[in-house]
């Protein structure tokens, strides 16, 4: 059983048709339960000890466009991923052989978040098609000192 962060609801089960118990929830209300899932209450059915809510789970994906560089900021790499923490880890630890491991790309200096993979890919293509100067200006607007950004 996992708990919702707002302390008013607890989750039972993990598939469509699972039940949520709690208080002060209306039919049709949306309830955020964590960063990956979104719960919507379909119908309220009174239970013996608490109210039970029929609900469904909808995966809310996030996609990241990101730019990384080496410690001297001389090489830029632009990519897209659905898991930024994992992908940055892979770059930093050189777990995947290729361009980023060859050129020591280890600093995350810029990223954008998207809900739609097609939007993230389109933005990646736009950035890759731009000049180095445009990429540097984009980074400087968010991260003027080219610091390695922390992952939240």
What does this structure look like?
With 152 residues, the protein is of the alpha+beta class. The chain folds into two domains: 2-59, no CATH class; 63-142, 3-Layer(aba) Sandwich (GIY-YIG endonuclease), CATH 3.40.1440.10. It has four helices and nine strands, in the order ββββββββααβαα. The strands form two sheets. It has a six-stranded antiparallel beta sheet with strand order 1-2-3-6-5-4, with no helix packed on it. Strands 8-7-9 form a three-stranded antiparallel beta sheet, with helices on both faces. The longest helix has 13 residues, at 117-129. The two termini are 25 Å apart. Mean pLDDT is 75; it is low at 1-56.
Sum this structure up briefly.
The protein has 152 residues and is an alpha+beta fold. The chain has helices at residues 84-92, 99-102, 117-129, 132-142; strands at 2-3, 9-12, 19-22, 30-32, 37-46, 51-59, 63-69, 76-81, 107-114. It folds into two domains: 2-59, no CATH class; 63-142, GIY-YIG endonuclease.
């Amino acid at each position: 059983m996992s708990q919702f962060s707002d302390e008013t609801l607890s989750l039972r089960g993990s598939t469509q048709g699972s039940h949520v118990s709690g208080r002060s929830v209306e039919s049709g209300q949306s309830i955020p339960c964590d960063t990956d899932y979104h719960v919507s209450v379909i119908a309220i059915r009174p239970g013996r000890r608490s109210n039970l809510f029929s609900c469904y789970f909808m995966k809310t994906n996030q996609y990241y466009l990101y730019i990384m560089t080496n410690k001297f900021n001389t090489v830029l790499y632009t990519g897209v991923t659905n898991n930024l923490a994992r992908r940055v880890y892979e770059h930093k630890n050189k777990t995947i052989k290729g361009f980023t491991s060859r050129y020591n790309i280890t600093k995350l200096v810029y990223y954008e978040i998207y809900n739609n993979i097609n939007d993230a890919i389109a933005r990646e293509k736009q950035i890759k098609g731009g000049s180095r100067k445009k990429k540097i200006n984009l980074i400087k607007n968010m991260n003027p000192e080219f610091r390695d950004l922390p992952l939240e």
